[in-house]
Please model this.
Amino acid sequence: MSKYWSDIVSRLTPYTPGEQPKDKILLKLNTNENPYSPSSEVLDAIKLSTKASLRLYPDPESINLKEALANYHNLSKANIFIGNGSDEILAFIFQALLNKEAPVLFPDITYSFYPAYCSLYDIKYKRIPLDKKLNINLEDYLINNGGIIFPNPNAPTGIPKSVVDIENLLQLNQESVVVIDEAYVDFGTESAVKLINQYKNLVITQSFSKSRSLAGIRLGCAFANEDLIEALNRIKNSFNSYPIDRLAQVAGVKAIQDENYFNLTRIKIIEARKFLEKELLLIDFEVLSSGANFIFTRHKSKDAIIIFNKLREAGVLVRHFNEPERISQFLRITIGTMEDMQKLISILKAVL
Ligand SMILES: *Cc1c(COP(=O)(O)O)cnc(C)c1O
Model:
């Protein structure tokens, strides 16, 4: 605290990202990065763009990337917004579309950036408890609200909702914006993008960080009705006209176009997840059903923090959340390559 700080800074509770260790780690399974390299087409495009034109500002609208995404999702460019990571887009969404009189609703156990944005923009919110099995029950959201947001699949549980359930919510909740954070959707969860043209209050965010192996380039996108995209553009252009640099724009285009590599890698990750689930069950873990590139799991008798620390000593980094109490016995484990998962299982067997 300092007398030079503004009041808002003193009141903030910032998000704490998973550790990016400096020392050598055997297996880094704590921040849901992709174990595979970006596509070689992406890397080549970045190399070819590393030239004198970097002296020029990038295209403020990222038109080429919007075009690639519009083709891919069968949408119009006017339905697309590009941001410096989907986190930046989420920040804009909270400011532009969720800052209302009534509280914004999100699950009590979910992505912890949502309450951080509420504290940044002074937005009222209400946490809706997950049910006993840690599922989101969308009927609980049919109350007075200034907007609804949740990840699909949810984080850190990994549990997906069906598009039928989401459409049902949209039909019953038309007076406020509904945001579906699809950061992990490509790992076996059905996307709600097909509903964009039908529901004027639907916003979907996606990320290049997980399924497109580009966490290091900071790129995300949102899909919505033109009106809502216009609101996001107004915020963006009052903040930073050039959030997406030249290298990120070409990388994004190639990452969308190289569909073969995208499918190959995400299918490998889904297979490695199935393998890990099966192996964990054999050594007395309970595993929540996951539609993501991570699993949320707890051992039937051994303490989560003890397992976490023993893994850490063995050079394996996973994620543990102290709060809330209800999930303090769970570990979130990022899915790596099949080889990574085999290594993890053999280390787990040794430490248990
Ligand atoms: C990783 C993640 C994001 C942010 O992704 P970036 O595009 O890297 O900013 C958003 N939402 C959830 C639920 C995430 O896990």
Q: What stands out?
A: The mean pLDDT is 96.
